[in-house]
Design brief:
By secondary structure, this protein is mostly helical. The chain is built from 5 helices and no strands. The radius of gyration is 22 Å and the shape is elongated.
């Protein structure tokens, strides 16, 4: 089955990869599955939103809610979780700890007067 490519999502995924490259120097191989899952979830989310817009939130005959609303909620939760794993939002990026440089030698040299 051929994957349908949604242009805004392709543009977004390109931006995510550019961000990761700028932040970490490259898009690491171990991130590929997370990136693929994010792209798939985004594509499904768009499809579900379009179906909800087409059929409405409520069935006019039965008055019941569209069952796709729960699917939309689940997909959004998945998208947010994957975004957190990649650290691609400002909030998540701030929570990722970067390795600190070891300045022990500089500290000791400053204390002892040796440079």
């Amino acid at each position: 089955m051929k994957r349908k490519i949604n242009t805004p999502i392709a543009t977004y995924m390109k931006a995510v990869k550019a961000y990761l490259t700028a932040e970490y120097g490259c898009v690491k191989g171990e991130w590929q599955i997370t990136l693929m899952a994010l792209e798939d979830a985004l594509n499904r989310y768009v499809q579900v939103k379009q179906a909800i817009e087409e059929f409405g939130i409520y069935n006019s005959q039965t008055g019941l809610k569209n069952p796709l609303l729960s699917t939309e909620k689940d997909l959004l939760a998945t998208i947010l979780k994957l975004s957190q794993k990649l650290g691609i939002s400002p909030w998540d990026a701030a929570k990722i700890k970067t390795p600190e440089t070891d300045d022990t030698d500089d500290f000791i040299n400053n204390l002892t007067g040796n440079e």
